[in-house]
Amino acid sequence: MTSFQKITWRDGPLYWNKQNNKYVRVPNKKVALKRLHNSQYLINFLIDEAKKYSTEKFCHDITEIYGISQNPTTNDYILVLNNSINLVKWTSGIKKIDDFIQEMQLRVNKNDDIIFEWIPYSQFNEFKEIGKNGFMAIYSAIWKNGPLHYIDRYNAYGRNSNKKITLKCLHKSQKTIDKVLNKARIYSKILEVYGISQNPNTKDFILVLNNINWPSGNKKIDSFIQEMQLNNKYDGIVFEWIPYDQFDKIKETSKYGSITEYSAIWKDGPLYYKRDSNKEIVLKYLHNSQNSIDFLINKVKKYIKNYRYDNFLKLYGISQNPDTKNYILVQSNSINWMSKNEQIDDFILEMQFKSNDFATLVFEWIPYDQFDKIKETSKIKSVTVYQFDKIKETSKNKSVTVYSAMWKDGPLYNKLHDRNSNKEVALKCLHNLQNPVESLINKAKIYSKILDIYGISQNPDTNDYILVLNNVTWESGNKKIDDFIQEMQLKFNDLLFEWIPHNQFNEINKIGKSGFSTIYSAIWKDGPIFKKNQQNGNYTRDSNKEVTLKCLNKSQDPIESVINEAKKYLAKEIDRKIFKPYGISQNPDTAELILVLNNITWKNGNKKIDDFILEMQLKSNDLLFEWIPYSQFNEIKTSGESSFVTIYSAIWKNGPICKNNQQNGNYARDSNKEVTLKCLNKSPIETVIDEAKKYLTKEINRKIFKPYGISLNPNTNDFIVVLNNITWMSGNKEIDDFIHETQSRINDSLFEWIPYNQFNEIKEIDKNEFMTVCSAIWIDGPLCRNWLSEYTRDSNKEVTLKCLNNSQDLIEFVINEAKRYSTKEFNRKIFKPYGITQNPDSNNFILVLSNITWISGNEKVDVFVQEAQSRVSDLLFEWIPYNQFNEIKEISKDNHTSVYSAIWKDGPIYRKNQWNENYMRDPNKEVTLKCLNNSKELIDSVIKEAKSYLTKEFNKKIFKPYGISQNPDTNDFILISDNITWTSGNKKIEDFIQDVQLKINDSLFEWIPYNQFNEIKKIRKGGFATVYSAIWKNGPLYNNNQLNENYARDSNKKVALKILDNSQNLSSEFLNKVKVYLTKMVNKNNILKIYGMSQDPITKEYIIVLYYAEAPEVLKGRPYTQVADIYSFDICKGIRPKLNEPEAPKSYINLMEKCWNLIPNDRPNIIELCQSLWSISINNSEIEKAENYRNLHLSSLMKNRQITIHYQAIYTSRFLNSFIKDLQ
After folding, report:
1. Gap between the Cα atoms of 945 and 958, Å rounded
2. Which residues pair with 77 in a beta bridge?
3. What one-character-per-residue DSSP string does 1067-1088 give?
4. Is the separation of the CB atoms in 452 and 470 below 8 Å?
5. How high is the pLDDT of residue 1139?
């Protein structure tokens, strides 16, 4: 049991104040206390009740709950609620109803939602009875306070006082509360229901509504209406029972069979969110329907079957004439003309409901007397079909006459509600139909999909049905052909395939023969049907259209032949777009059937070739491959030849079929197209097909070469592959096979054989005993893709020729050298291997490239360089000739290494920018030469040294190893890089440093010459080392640009030198200990940075070079600062403990590590510390996870943490001066 009490809360609830960015209380807030009696032991009940209310919205939410309280006397729990709807005063006192009201209120989630509430009966004035039946009475009334509504200006709810409303009084409902609530639930879905009330005299419950929904008094009808309302398809329009006395100005407009239609004014009007009063509507009387409720309901269901909110017809509801008892359908519109055939009228109604666009035509019955100026335009004659060797007419039919006429009123458009008067239309009169109504409807359905069809009419003299059309299509009279045409019309939406009378064609001219067909050009007078406007869907004809007639020479089964031929052009979308098969016709003189097309492709007559071409056409969507008559080519000129192939340029008169508009997808021929003819000398058909397949199989080849088709030279009988571009053949099978394999494998570039006579201005750049490098101009140039994604040649292209000396008999060597540049994508982007050529004088093979790299001549070095290039994707490592270096200056040297600066003339290869992926050289680049003294016989050491720069990603970024060179005077090998590190000269140390470098990923550990250090000062001595501070002149390497990862040295860097006592004679065991120490220190949360090792040249003791930490400051006698305070915040027992325990929140571990950072400026200040602690405290998931782990493992954790107290432990404070004086 619950009760309400209205009070004022002195302090008031907390709200978030956006302006001040903090929480504030709203004092003296009026609230409602909802007391839950006897709830002191029902905690779960209390919580469930509280959950029903909202805690997410503020200030104005009527379901807002502020909190929970408790009466200290009764111990009853109390919910403290928002009282904006006066909960205290307006409750029914009936639990079921109050719970339902609360449920309805909890559904409110928008400001304009209706607030459902209990409304005291005393709130109503000015009662007027509107109507009643045995179950209920309807009243209008004035609600004094009025319903709640949201006021944006005040950000609160207010009441709309003195609101006129409707009271629906449910008789004898006091004992059927569930039915009352069910009705309220139903009405709230379709009407504005403000709440529930109760008549204090009769105890009848009342639904308080904004509008009224009338009952018919017939249970079956009311149930159906309720079902319609609940399954509302009407986008806001409420289907309802409408009392007959709501209608004024009732006038009969038409009558047919069992139906009479009237126009009328509906006083209240239909309900569409609100009522549209004095609405002009149509009343459709169903005679003798008073005893046939099922008939009435089925009629309504026909209307709603295909209903859309934007239909031309809208059904508002049902009514009944009180005198005749006939039921009435109340609808929005009517077309006064009915056929009086129920099957046809039902079909018309179905079609009208499909009309849903502004510009869509309304399909209707059109009285014949609407037509003027009726003129016969043609009558469909018979299609005469003859057998091949004996003339015999096999079919004849005269079933259609076509007239032109003027429609006086004209067609009606859906939402425009406007007729296009005096419209010229085509009347297609259907004679002698076996099943006239069924045939008529089927034909109308077909035309509605492909043409503008206005409706159906009937000639009153002949009783022939008529289809009224904007355009007309013909019929052949042959059932097989007409069925096929009809099937195609229904199947394809992008093309209207039709029967075309032969007398539609003018200017018929023979073009030639193609296989078993004769080809003509012609002008089609009416022209094909097309959509005039993509938006409104209106169709029109493209008159005087030039078309191609493909006349099929007589065959055993001409009808089957023409259908099969048509299917070839219709099956594939690209073929429909290219060839545009418009339809079928017949020559009345020869009886030959004709395919009417926009474009045509020819046939060779050779079955293998024709089958291959057809197969290619069916496979490819992006290119039309065809047979091209040799007579199509003009201006044929030889451009090159080999023993197998002759290449010609030519002009193709008609040209290839191409898309002339990317938007509409129309195809046309590109006449007078310059093409390349690749004539395959004395080649069999299989070779021709294989050659064509090379260009057709791969998409990139189709785009580059654009294989248009095959032709045949009638003089030599040599087959020709017709292309847009051409690549040559070397005549060497191994090389040609390699080039073809490379072309089929690589998608991002074209590798080809290039005739040597394509090169001009050949100039030698450099050479060695293995190769000669030349620059040259390639006349035609490589194939490249332009901004339209089309491939064209980049003529007069400057390229590099890498001539492989004495390679004429080393085909495998040439191929392997080419593979170096073509196998890996990175290398293809850098070197751009265009292809292979051959010097006709020396017979040496030549690689044609954009960039070049050299070879050393030393097999081991060249193999290593090649391996490095194949393994590294972001940096080009190469052999660099020594003569590439200028301005060589010595920087420093020791026994093992000499270091120089130099200018590299050509410079390293780099990517110009990150968007276009083009690589080029960075000329006159300043680099560092690390010359390995006496290394001419130590190739393995050279390679190992190079690997130390290349193996690790971090080292590659820092040193940028460009390659290897060799001093021709000393034969010493040289490493070329951006930065340099030194060597110690001790193999153990070098191996140790390299090993450490491989283990440490985020910093560079290196050998540092002792003469790099200035201002060396002793700090302290302890353990096995003495610590000094020093200034490192060059300084450590660091990343000076986070975006491009460029590294530079931080010169004059203060560092710490940790000199290892008695370390002159290094043992492996000692180095291993140092390595473990280094690895631990570096990997321990980056607390210390270790730069490398050095050696004191006097004492020979080894030195570890460390980051100089100004810590701990206080222990060294420096002033106590806040950062020092933060440092001590998390230091436990004087050490930094290892923190990897899962019972500690990760955020807390991170904070501890920040606090003990050796760099004072990197420690958080007190504000940052407090903010971090606050963030950790509210991160419940981390804390909960850690706490759960701790609870699960508590016993083992406690056991592990037991400690033994040292006997010298001191528990009282004492001065530390004696302990820290050495640290001053």
Report:
1. 15
2. 36, 70
3. -HHHHHHHHHHHHHHHHTTT-S
4. yes
5. 59
CA-nearest of 248, 275, 276, 243 to 262 is: 248
Please choose, from the candidates 502, 538, 493, 539, the residue with its C-alpha nearest in 3D space to the C-alpha of residue 523. 502
Q: Using DSSP, state whether 911 is helix, strand or coil.
A: strand
- Numbers of helices and strands, H then E, in the chain: 27, 70
Count CB-CB contacts under 10 A for residue 1140: 7
pLDDT value of residue 590:
87
Q: What is the pTM of this model?
A: 0.45
Distance of alpha carbon 226 from alpha carbon 736, whole angstroms: 81
Give which of 712, 800, 785 is closest to 754, Cα–Cα.
800
Residue written as token pair 């969110």: 273
What secondary structure does DSSP assign to 993-1028, as a single string? HHHHHHH--SS--EE--GGGEEEEEEEEEETTEEEE
Residues 587, 502 contacting (CB under 8 angstroms) = yes
CA pair distance 757, 642, nearest whole angstrom: 13
Give the span between the Cα atoms of 301 and 324, in whole angstroms: 23
Q: Distance between CA atoms of 605 and 598, rounded to whole angstroms?
A: 22
Q: How far apart are CA 910 and CA 830, in angstroms?
A: 8
Largest CA distance in the chain: 133
Q: Kindly state the tokens that stand for 828.
A: 């293809």
Rounded Cα distance between 59 and 84, Å, is: 10
Strand partners, 329: 284, 318
Angle at 776 between CA 774 and CA 782, to 5 degrees: 120
Apex 447 CA angle, 443 and 453, nearest 5: 115
Alpha-carbon gap, residue 302 to 304, rounded angstroms: 6
Instruction: Report the pLDDT value the prediction gives residue 1199, as an integer from 0 to 100.
Output: 56
- The answer to whether residues 78 and 68 touch, using CB atoms and an 8 Å cutoff, is yes
pLDDT for position 877? 85
The list of the chain residues with pLDDT below 50 reads 57-60, 88-89, 234, 309-310, 358-359, 382-397, 415-416, 663, 1084-1087, 1112-1134, 1203, 1205-1224
C-beta contacts of 1148-1154 below 8 A and 24+ residues apart: 1148/1176, 1151/1176, 1153/1085
pLDDT (0 to 100) of residue 912? 62
Question: In this structure, are residues 795 and 783 in contact, taking their beta carbons and an 8 Å threshold?
Answer: no
The DSSP bridge partners found for residue 928 are 901, 977
d(CA 801, CA 807): 14
For residue 517, which of 470, 468, 587 has the smallest C-alpha distance? 587
The Cα–Cα gap between 741 and 753 comes to 13
Nearest to 634 by CA among 646, 649, 624, 647: 649
Eight-state DSSP code of residue 1193: T
Taking Cα atoms as reference points, which of 320, 339, 322, 344 lies closest to residue 330? 320
DSSP H helical ranges for 603-746: 607-619, 685-696, 699-705, 733-745
* Residue 358: partners with Cβ closer than 8 Å, 6 or more residues away: 413, 414, 415, 416
Residues 6+ apart with CB under 8 A from 942: 861, 932, 935, 964, 973, 975
Identify the residue whose tokens are 């097999």.
859
DSSP H or E run through 941: helix 939-950
> Coil, strand or helix: which one is 246?
helix
Yes or no: say if 784 and 813 are a contact pair by the CB < 8 Å rule. no
- Residue 878 structure tokens: 């190469």
